[in-house]
Every structure is written in structure tokens, then in C-alpha cells.
Amino acid sequence: MRVERLWTAYADGSARCLEPLADRFGELCGPELAVPWADGRIDACRTALRSGDLEAKCIAPCLSALAAADRHDALVELFDGVDGLPWRIRKYVVQSLFALGRKGEAHRYAKAGLCDDPVAIARTCEELLFSCSLRDEAYRRYGLVANRTEPASAWFQAVMERYPTKSAVEVLGDLMALTPGKEASWFEVAFSAGLFDEAMELARWGRCAPEDLVDAAEYVAQTHPDFAMQMGFAALQRMVAGYDEVNANGVIAAHALVLRTARALDATDSAVGQVQALVSGDSHGAWFVRKVLERRG
User: Fold this and answer.
1) Model-level pTM?
2) Which residue from 84, 103, 86 is spatially nearest to 94, judged by alpha carbons?
3) What whole-number distance in Å separates Cα of residue 170 and Cα of residue 168?
4) pLDDT of residue 224 exceeding 70
5) How far is CA 296 from the centre of its chain?
6) Is the CB of residue 137 less than 8 Å from the CB of residue 128?
7) pLDDT at 34
8) Which of 40, 139, 162, 198 is a plausible cystine mate for 143, CB 3.0–4.6 Å?
9) Is the dihedral of CA 130, 136, 138, 139 positive or negative?
10) How deeply is 70 buried, as exposed, middle or buried, from its count of CB atoms within 10 A (0-12, 13-18, 19+)?
11) pLDDT tens-digit profile of 11-57?
12) CA distances from residue 145 to 35, 158, 177, 179 in whole angstroms, order as listed
């Protein structure tokens, strides 16, 4: 029998490529074969769980087969008195409790034990709350972690698609609060989403590279000159503050952006005064920017 041959190869460890099949034995068996196959290994599975032998080969295939056979009561009973399980095992109990309509218990059990796979646990808990029409609570407790992915733009988009009633400003603010130190990534997201106020705050106080600020501002200099000018100031401010990779070309580009957009806004005198005030300090960054602009004339 094909399933028995796979089980033998998996159980004796002779074919490590079969490891991913452990969670799919029930699918391989099918509902009819899953019943006798699981019955033949349920005692070994119970013994392994209660003795703490969580690496036993029989556990995942047996639980998978019980689930495929809709033997959810029997699966849940296996875990009576068994605590502190990793998610790779605990998830079967959560799925069976959910299938039995015991959603509250499923939610509590999902949160119990080791938090060794926070994204998978959050996704399961989020889905449980969705099934109870508790979407706001799902967002508040699990929505951000459950939809985590890379890069930051994909994460932001995933959360927005999952929670279409949430505003982009709220989601961005929550993601920023969850990931301190990632301001540069969220600046790109805010700018791409047209959230210019939020992008400006990140440009001023986040750890954004000056050249990235200038590059972004150039895209909107004609349509949003005031925003672009403020981005130029933010870039100069980062250089004056001692950004590690500051160079003369970057200073010139940021300064030129400020002056060009200031002319469009009929604010040249004010902009020149702000630049002079910005570079008037005694720090090395201020001295460097000031010398570059002096040579530039």
C-alpha cells in the first residue's frame, strides 16, 4: 500500500525529504483509509504526548489522519492533561475545537503554550475572531502580526486588503508603533501611498537616508513643491546632524532642490535664510555642509 510504504520510509528516517509529508498523512490516506490508519497508531501517539516525547514520528501523521477522518473528539481527548506544546502540535487541537464549534476554547488553546510561531498563531487567532464577526478585535489583537510579510510595502498592503475599513493613516501608524527603528521603510510606504504628512514626519525624525528623501521629492517637485522643499530641508537637516554617508554631491542636490522649489513658491529669501540658520552650528555636519555650499557659491 502506498501510504504504508511512505509511512515506513518516514518513520525510520531513511528519507528526510518526506518530513514535510507528516502534516499531510490524513490527506494522503483520504477519509476512509484515515480511520483505520489513525486507529492503529493512536495509542502510540497518546503515549508519546503524555510522556513528553514530542519528537515521536507517529504524532503529526496520526493527528493529521484523525482530522481527515473527522475524529475531532478523539483528537482533542488525546491532549487531556498535556500542556506546554509547541504550535506545530497544538495547531491540530485548535483546528479540531474549531471544527466542533468550540471557538472560544479554540482561541484560548491557540494562545496557550509556547509562542514559537507567532505569525502562524496570530493568523489562526485572527481567523477565529473573524468567524465570530469580531473584526475590530481581530485587528487590534492579531491583525498586524498575522499579515506580516516582507517588504514593508507588502505588509502594509496585506493589512489594508484584510481590513478595508481601516484608514491608511491608522494602519501605517500602528505598523510604525510595532516596529520602532524601521522609519526609513515606512517613509517609502507613506510616500508611495500619498500620505505626505506622515512621510514628512518620518523624513524629519526618522533614520531616512538624505539621498532617498531627495530622490522621492524629485518625483513630486512640480506637483507638490512645498512638500518637496520641506523634504530638501529634511535631507539637509540629516546631513547637518551627522548622517554617516554624507557627501558633497548629496549636499548640492538637496540644496538645489530647496532653492528650485522655493522659487516656484516665491519663497526664495525665506528658504535661503532657513538654510543659513541650519548650517550655522558648530557640529562637524554643519561645518561640512556649510563649506560645500560656500565653495558652491
Assistant:
1) 0.83
2) 103
3) 6
4) yes
5) 44
6) no
7) 82
8) 139
9) positive
10) middle
11) 766 656 667 777 777 777 777 788 888 888 899 999 999 999 998 88
12) 36, 11, 12, 11
Alpha carbon separation from 218 to 80, 102, 239, 256 (Å, rounded)? 63, 56, 18, 11
Helix (H) or strand (E) segment spanning residue 291: helix 284-296
| All three cell numbers of 50 | 503524555
Angular region, 283: left φ>0, alpha ψ -120 to 50, beta rest: beta
Q: How far apart are CA 131 and CA 121, in angstroms?
A: 15
What torsion, rounded to 10 degrees, do the Cα atoms 214, 220, 224, 228 define?
0
Per the document, the length of the chain is: 297
Please tell me the distance from the alpha carbon of residue 241 to that of residue 283, in angstroms, as a whole number: 8
148 Cβ contact list (under 8 Å, min separation 6): 119, 122, 155
Phi-psi region of 246 (alpha: psi -120 to 50; beta: other; left: phi over 0): beta
Mean pLDDT of 218-243: 94
Task: Look at residue 194 in the predicted model and tell me its pLDDT.
Answer: 94
Do you find a cis peptide bond into 20, omega within 30 degrees of 0? no
Please count the other Cβ atoms lying within 10 Å of the Cβ belonging to residue 132.
Answer: 12
pLDDT in tens, 101-137: 999 999 999 988 778 899 999 999 999 999 999 999 9
- The C-alpha angle with vertex 220 and arms to 252 and 295, in degrees rounded to 5, equals 10
Mean pLDDT of the chain: 91
Fill in the DSSP letter of residue 25: H
**In angstroms, rounded to a whole number, what is the distance separating the alpha carbons of residues 293 and 77?**
76
